[in-house]
Design brief:
By secondary structure, the protein is α/β, with parallel strands linked by helices. The chain has 19 helices and 20 strands. The longest helix is centred in the first third of the chain and has 22 residues.
């Protein structure tokens, strides 16, 4: 009988060299054009868990959209910039602070729409009222309705919204619908929603579809997180609210009694054309249809107010992190008061520095977050920053459970505010397609202050003394989550 001896030596040598090559390659490839924190997180993952780390990096390591989609975004950005450069977008309010003009220029340089005057904007802070107002607006449509939401579900709570769409289709109004693929697939009412859209005759498409067998694939955790509605180019809604029940119809939320609290804004005036331009650019990205012959991209109508507004889209289709740079410029501009509302607050070093610097300049900095989280990793990553914020002088208000404060806004002093879909975390800065609206006008900030006061009355303040009593297990979880949050 022949005896075969298996020599493990060569296998050990082979594994050693493969491991060495992976580590050297990682050092060369990963830090390139990546933030140091993200690069370090990926390197740690690969060094401590080589096979898992490499697999995850190959799966989600590229934070950019596919090249074809980036080219589309570049084309639409150039078209929007050239088309809007010399158009009249209403009369702007006089005596704008120099820093505000500089921020507007920054946004424009990065791909934002023009600053528009003569706008009216009103906040809607109640969840059900917002759905009713949007349905009411849809019922006034004469030509078209453009619907773009991260999550869109036909359920008992949103039934009136969908009935308004059905009535619009029956009147001959063109209804176009965009919804994020990954956020909706497999969720409650997904198939029922698609069937209802088909039955009413709406034109609908999935955003950022992950359908490799149909030739559609990108990093699976890229999301189009925008929420907007446009009616005939004369009225629009944007903000943080999805079209779904306040529980998101998820069993785990219902079991825990969780309900989402959101903030939407209804706008009228020239800025509606900018909101519509964002929808049309996303429609083009998904369908290759420009619709420019059917719809004037900047069909500007005068509004009933005198607010100055600028729409700032952001996401992996842009070269820079537009929303992060907008937020940073406002934080450094604040002189007296800076109030931040963000359900998911995981800042990078630049934002943490901007906030602490504002406190050191004597600015009253307050932040609203949720007492309870719905996403464990983000929740604990966010908590890991509380001590640094409290020591810097930030007042942290925790919206009482079982409600998830999902609104996203910022107010600066008494004249400028931002509202939209963007959280203040690394996902929203680098992976999500978002849309924000910069507003200048004391009357709008007054509305924002009223909402902030309502949130304050429904919150409790977190103190440094309370935070220092956190158990060790919470600190460990928070710090581990903080490390993983940088994997982009």
């Amino acid at each position: 009988m022949i005896s075969i001896t298996f020599d493990w030596t060569w296998w050990v040598i082979l594994v050693f060299f493969v491991d060495l090559i992976v580590r050297i390659t990682a050092i060369i490839v990963i830090p390139r054009n990546r933030r140091p924190t993200a690069a370090m997180a990926w390197l740690l993952a690969i060094y401590f868990m080589p096979f898992v780390g490499v697999f995850l990096f190959l799966l989600i390591g590229n934070p950019r959209l596919p090249r074809k989609r980036r080219l589309k975004q570049d084309q639409i950005n150039e078209y929007i910039h050239e088309t809007s450069e010399h158009l009249d977008f209403g009369t702007l309010r006089p005596h704008a602070p120099e820093w505000f003009n500089a921020t507007v220029t920054l946004n424009r340089t990065l791909g934002a729409l023009p600053l528009a005057g003569d706008n009216a904007a009103h906040l809607i802070a109640d969840y059900d009222t917002s759905l009713r107002e949007q349905a009411k607006a849809i019922r006034t449509a004469k030509r078209y309705v453009h619907v773009e939401f991260y999550i869109l579900q036909s359920d008992p709570t949103t039934d009136d919204f969908f009935r308004a769409l059905e009535e619009a289709c029956a009147r001959g109004v063109v209804v176009r619908v965009l919804m994020d693929h990954w956020a909706n697939r497999g969720k409650p009412f997904y198939k029922q929603t698609l069937r209802r859209l088909d039955a009413m005759g709406a034109q609908w498409h999935l955003m950022l579809p992950v359908q490799p067998f149909r030739g559609k694939y990108q990093r699976p955790d890229l999301r189009n997180h925008r929420k907007l509605l446009v009616i005939d180019g004369v009225m629009a809604f944007i903000g943080s609210q999805n079209i779904t029940d306040s529980t998101y119809n998820l069993r785990r939320n219902i079991r825990r009694g969780l309900h989402w609290v959101d903030l939407m804004v209804r706008v009228e005036g020239p800025v509606v054309a900018s909101v519509n331009a964002v929808f049309l650019s996303d429609w083009y990205s998904e369908t290759d249809e420009t619709l420019t012959e059917e719809i004037d991209l900047f069909e500007v109508t005068t509004g009933p107010g005198d607010l100055d507004c600028q729409i700032v889209p952001s996401g992996p289709g842009f070269e820079f992190q537009n929303n992060l740079k907008l937020f940073l410029s406002l934080m450094y501009a604040a002189q007296r008061k800076l109030i931040i509302v963000s359900p998911y607050f995981v800042p990078d070093e630049s934002m943490l520095l901007a906030i602490s610097t504002a406190c050191q300049r004597g600015v009253d900095v307050q932040m609203f977050v949720s007492e309870e989280g719905d996403q464990a990793i983000v929740y604990h990553a966010q908590r890991s920053y509380y001590e640094a914020l409290l020591r810097a002088g930030v007042r942290i208000w925790m919206y009482r459970k079982p409600y998830i404060l999902h609104s996203k806004s910022m107010t600066v002093d008494d004249e400028v505010a931002v509202i939209g879909s963007s959280n203040m975390d690394m996902r929203s800065f680098g992976l999500n397609l978002e849309v924000s609206m910069l507003v200048r006008g004391e009357e709008f900030v007054t509305e924002m202050r009223d909402v902030e006061q309502m949130y304050r009355e429904l919150s409790r303040e977190l103190t440094l003394e309370e935070w220092e009593q956190q158990p060790l297990r919470s600190t460990v979880l928070d710090n581990l989550a903080r490390l993983t949050s940088a994997l982009q």
